[in-house]
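As described in the Methods, two query proteins were run sequentially through the folding procedure within a single session, without resetting any intermediate state between them. The first query and its resulting C-alpha cells are shown here.
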Amino acid sequence: MFTNKNGKKMLRIDAYRFTINKRVRNKYWWRCSSHGSRGCRATVITLDDLVYKIANEHNH
C-alpha cells in the first residue's frame, strides 16, 4: 500500500495499481485504477492489510 501524489491510498500488485472503492472497518474493496477510463473489472479485497481475495483479470 502506498499514497499517491494527491494523498490517496493505493495498492500495487504486479504492474497494476488499485484505488479504494469501499471500506467497512478493517476491510477494503479495491478496484483497478483503469476502471473508469478502460472499464477494467479487476478487484482486490484486503483485510487487516493482507490480501483476502483477488480477481486480477485485467482487460489492458
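Immediately afterward, the second query was submitted; its sequence and C-alpha cells are:
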Amino acid sequence: MPDVSNAQPSTVDHRRIPLRTLVPLVALGGAVGALLRFGLGELIPEQGMKFPWTTLLVNLSGSAALGLLVGIAAVRTKTPSWVVPTLGTGLLGAYTTFSTVILVLLPSVPGAALDSLSTVTYVSPGILEAGAYLLISIIFGTMAAAAGLVTARGIFGYLGHDAERRAAGRGGTGGPS
C-alpha cells in the first residue's frame, strides 16, 4: 500500500457551481476589470507616447496578479471553485488583453490596412521600440506570472501546509517539510 502521509491535499473546492451562477460572476469580474483598465488608461493616457507604458504596466501587473491568484488557488485547500474563473478569466481577462498590445503596435507596421480604423492617435513607434515592447511584454509578462506563482507558493503554500498538518495532529514548523 502506498504511503499517503505526505500526499498533497486537494487544493481546490471541487464542488461544481452551476453555470447559471458562474456566468454572471465572470461577467461581473469582467466589468470590474474593464473599468480598472479604462481608469488606468484615463489616469496615464498613452496618446502622444512613443512607448506604450500604460499597456505594459497593465499587462505586467495583470500577469503577476494572475500568477498570484493561480498560485494561491493551487495551495489553499478551500478555494471556492468560482474564484479563479471570476477573478482570473473575468477580472484579469478584461484588465489585460493581448489585443491592446497589437493595437499599440499597429501604427509601426508600414502601410497597415487597419490604420484608418484606429480611434486613438498614437505616435508611431519605430521598429526598435515595437520589437522591444513585444519582447518585454512576452518575457517580463511570463516572469511576472512566474513570480506571482512562486510568491503564492512561498507565502500561502507553507502557511496552508502547516495549518493542515496542525489540523491533522502532526505539528508544523513554519517551513518546508
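Residues 19-167 form one domain. We note this only descriptively and draw no conclusion about the first query from it.
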